[in-house]
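Hi support team,

I submitted a single chain yesterday and got back a structure, but I'm not sure I'm reading the token output correctly. Could someone confirm the output below corresponds to the sequence I sent? I've pasted both exactly as they appear in my results page.

Thanks,
R.
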Amino acid sequence: MPIPGPTSGLADSYGRVATDLRVSLTDRCNLRCNYCMPAEGLDWLPTEETLTDDEVVRLVRIGVEDLGIREVRFTGGEPLLRRGLAGIVERTKALSPSPEVSLTTNALGLARTAQTLADAGLDRVNVSLDTIDREQFHEITRRDRLHDVLEGLAAAKSAGLTPVKVNAVLLRGVNDRHAPELLSWCLEQGFQLRIIEQMPLDAQHGWSREGMVTAEEIFALLESEFELTPDPEHRGSAPAETFLVDGGPATVGVIASVTRPFCGDCDRVRLTADGQVRNCLFAREESDLRRALRSDATDAEIADQWRLAMMTKRPGHGIDDQTFLQPTRPMSAIGG
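Hi R., thanks for writing in. Yes, this is the structure output for that exact sequence:
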């Protein structure tokens, strides 16, 4: 396949084109989920290394106006910790063409910010929530904050940040047997549940395939109480494989990045909080756009560097390859 020319979008050498941009606004988080980071937290990025609000918006603008980005999702760490979040959302939504703008959050603080974010133009939210059991939540996150998360979810729904999606990771022997209960609760609340296979992105590098609850196990757990049938709508590049629950119209999704990879249809690219392009969630290489920003590079020069970064994207994440090495950065520093 020919290498894309200088005026093309974010194509890679395998013909995939990135139109979905994930932007990490901070590596900091106010939870300490035990499958993500140690109890004492991590060494956060120094403030001077983190992109400013203006730098974030400039890169997003280049992505939207020059490189064909159509969806922008702000992530973290925990993006609600970013003081300028509402302003970044408003300026992003005002771009032309206006992208879909969403947020992945743990929902702590969402109860008091949901309406402000909706007024700024935020379209919807994904909320990370692994359990609705208070003791299990405390065990997993090391924080007794379930009530705050539930209030945040309710506020998001009330503000019209819909569809509200709930992202859950099942941990063997902890919350896996409660998956049907979580789905039942989401159905009652009108939320869309997405269960995600645990991925090798923890700071402790303690992930193992044997310890991961697989997609097949997830299906078996849910089918113990619900009838699942494949969703007739075309999946496209969406990471979640969706199923009608008891005939629909409600659905549940399973994101099986490890056992049922969807790399061939990937349309995502990531920016870290310190301005590094990552062309794959599991990439070990990055391209430094912050340096270009702070060296008075033109928009065209930054766009060209971004295009070049996409050309090194591999055909797949390679988790099943014996040579696979976990990324140096953990999920909290990469952004989901």
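A quick pointer for reading it: The chain has a mean pLDDT of 91. Let us know if anything else looks off.

Best,
Support desk
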